[in-house]
Fold:
Amino acid sequence: MIRRLAVVVGVVLTVVVLLVGGLWLFQRELVYVPSPGPVPPATTAVARGQDVVLTTADGVPLGAWFVPASGARRDVTVLVANGNAGDRSMRAPLAAALSAQGLDVLLFDYRGFGGNPGSPSEEGLYADARAARDHLVRDRGVPPQRMLYLGESLGSAVVARLATESPVGGMVLRSPSVDLPAVGERIYPYLPVRALLTDRFPVAEPVARAGVPTTVVLGESDSLVPPTQSRAVADAAGAPVVAVPGADHNDAALSHGPAVVDAVVDRAAALG
Structure:
């Protein structure tokens, strides 16, 4: 009996060790879900889109699209930081909707996404966002006070960090979590996710430190990032909340629906 119990305990411990070890070894494959690319030319996806190549400080070339305003021009540019999956072509409806509201838009893909070289990591994504911001300021002459950051899910952490380094006129964070471990703990409640994760992607702490005027948009039925987490980010930023009834994390209502577009437009209007 004792021997059988020892065998069972040994098997359970082996399974746990393998599971935890696998999570640690392959965590970035779980966090980042890029499309392999290639991404189609900008003009085939969004009217008046322009193909752009960004170069990061560590020499990684990144594909991007610049979409100029098609409506009455507001002289405001929106830098969009994607979530953890897909590529910029999936954000074409968002760019088109913002462009129709008179806003210039820059979509870009992180390293390892959309056919870009390199492998994604937290510091890598931050470097990619800096390259996008530098392109707008240096190459297109966009004044920082006439720029908005729009972060989608994981991208909320990317622009929150960017805002601590390079403040702009405002931010909109769509479905932000407090940090990445908080999401992982919900998916793997019985594993020491917070201790294992290499990439942390905090949001609440940097938005509080940045002091950039911010709006948080959340889905009331978000099954990946609970509304309570997004509201905690809003509390840290002192930000108003736009809640979309019935919307789940990847629903069109949150990716490019009126709530998101109107939140960006309102931030743009606040710039005068």
User: Anything to note?
Assistant: Residues 2-25 form the longest helix (24 residues). The chain has one domain: 32-270.
